[in-house]
Amino acid sequence: MTHVVLVHGAWAGAWVWDTVLGPLRAAGFTPHALDLPGAGTWGATDVTLDDVAGHVAAHVTTLDGPVFLVGHSGGGIVVTQVAEQLPDRIAGVVYVAGMMLPSGTGFGQLCDALGLAPPVGISRWLRPTADGRGTVVPPEAGAAVFFHEAAPADAVAAARRLVPQLETARLMAPAWTPERFGTVPRLYVEATLDRTVPLVAQREMQRLVPGARVITLDTDHAPQLSARDELVDGIRQWCLSGLPELRKDATAAALP
């Protein structure tokens, strides 16, 4: 049994993967869409990357058989960290318009280095939560920035499901090594029409963290809604390709 663990990004939830669950099952995979700590509600203690990655890693350790991680948007930071923790348990990592960042680098730092004038993407529309520790995406901004290539009704419905996000569980930087995360095969699904993780940033991450195979979708930040069939087919083909060769290629790219 081959498992696909689906990790959402900021302001979202397991629901963002609803459209791909059936097609993944039909393709022979067992999908697991997880809700992450720090999205929706939180307590008095901040949630960190260790907490979020630990939540996913704990689920992975309950599974028998190959496990692929799929991280959307900021979920890319989480799957990177899980692969660093459990490199021998992870068959491969997929980034869907995801943050495949160098170790120690946050997405804001990457954008600054590229000379992208802040605020980038959705940032200009964010509103603080009442406690000042989180942010909220107004639905009209979510529809226009995240889901603009989906059917209008689907875009509005998805934007209305976005939840508050704790900032400590969003503004994160991975910490990884070539000897662990660097040996895990990777696929990068780039979205050319993305308005929040700009294509120039996606390609800079591919350059800075080399070794990923790349497929290109002419779609927005959420191909789960706007290009579901193409997304699932790309994941399926890559996951079923020769895994020993993928791991060898990843190791060669990561190690000096």
UniProtKB/TrEMBL annotation:
Pfam family, one: Abhydrolase_6
Alphabetized InterPro entries for the sequence: AB_hydrolase_1 (IPR000073), AB_hydrolase_fold (IPR029058), Sec-Metab_Biosynth_Hydrolase (IPR052897)
Organism superkingdom: Bacteria
MF (Gene Ontology): hydrolase activity
Annotated keywords: Hydrolase
Gene3D superfamilies for the chain: alpha/beta hydrolase
Name the UniProt record assigns to this protein: Alpha/beta fold hydrolase
Lineage, top ranks: Bacteria, Bacillati, Actinomycetota, Actinomycetes, Mycobacteriales
